Amino acid sequence: MVNECLNIGTVERDSGIARDTLRVWERRYGLRPSHRSPSGRRQYTQADLEHLQLLATLVDSGVRIGEVAACGRKTLEIMLGRADGEQSAERKPRVLVIGVALCQWLDEHQGCLSHVDATLARAA
Q1: Pairing relation of β-strands 35-36 and 117-121?
Q2: How many CB atoms lie within 10 A of CB 57?
Q3: What is the pLDDT of residues 39-48, one digit of tens each?
Q4: d(CA 95, CA 118)
Q5: Residue burial 22-33, b: 16+ Cβ < 10 Å; e: rest
Q6: DSSP letters for 57-110
Q7: Could you tell me which residues come within 8 angstroms of residue 16 by beta carbon, excluding any fewer than 6 positions away?
Q8: Is the pTM for the entire model greater than 0.85?
């Protein structure tokens, strides 16, 4: 597993996010690396790096990290599509989803409603 992991210096170089910023994001927003070495060093996977690269791109475009730190990869990709102008000029259909179980399922499957303007009503 160690051979597959990246150190914080590599992640800093490849993501453009300073080490200190990575540490702050870890502490404030829970953006932790997937692994730690026995000595406590951060060990990032390629997936960790790609997630941080998406976050960095959004932050560079003006999005606040606190607004996107908890978002999954699919959501970040959708947001980048919108930021890059890939969003269709047509108005998206609007839906209202009612129910705790259905809203919870949609929360767990981010991106399922990427082509609609969805409002989730968590009423029982």
Answers
A1: unpaired
A2: 17
A3: 999 999 999 9
A4: 5
A5: beebeeeeebeb
A6: HHHHTT--HHHHTT--HHHHHHHHHHHTT-S-SSPPPEEEEE-HHHHHHHHHST
A7: 53, 56, 60
A8: no
